Amino acid sequence: MAVVHFPRQFMPYTDQHKTHATEGLSVSDVLNNLTTRFPDLIGPVFTEDLYPLPFVGLFVDGMPVTSEHDRRCPLDSRAQLILISAVAGG
After folding, report:
1. Strand ranges (DSSP E) for 1-90?
2. CB 70 within 8 A of CB 57
3. Residues 71, 27: contact at Cβ < 8 Å?
4. How many other C-beta atoms are found inside a 10 Å radius of the C-beta of residue 77?
């Protein structure tokens, strides 16, 4: 199962879970399953069509997910997906 890791800022939308293991053959599948389990992620983290908002980074095993091709590529069953929130400062 793929494991999704959440930053502290997103934990209010995940019932305070830091991680969540879910099935999925691709990133798109995992995101669909993830938002079914945690629908509050839609809006503050993902768009309705399950794309990360501009301030959210999505990585699979350390590599950024930046294209539709990345979202549809097969995932290893032990994949680690990491969501990060952009940090602003000056």
Report:
1. 2-5, 19-22, 56-60, 63-64, 80-85
2. no
3. yes
4. 10
For residue 34, count other CB atoms closer than 10 A to its CB. 23
Q: Dihedral angle at the C-alpha atoms of 19, 49, 71, 61, nearest 10 degrees? A: -20
Q: What confidence tier does 32 reach under pLDDT thresholds 50, 70, 90?
A: very high
User: How far, in Å, CA of 8 to CA of 4, rounded?
Assistant: 13
Q: How is domain 2-85 classified at the CATH fold level? A: Ubiquitin-like (UB roll) (3.10.20)
Both tokens assigned to 23: 């099935």
Residue boundaries of the structural domains of the chain = 2-85
Residue 38 · residue 14 · CB < 8 Å: yes
Phi and psi, residue 31, nearest 5°: -65, -35
Q: What is the pTM of this model?
A: 0.91
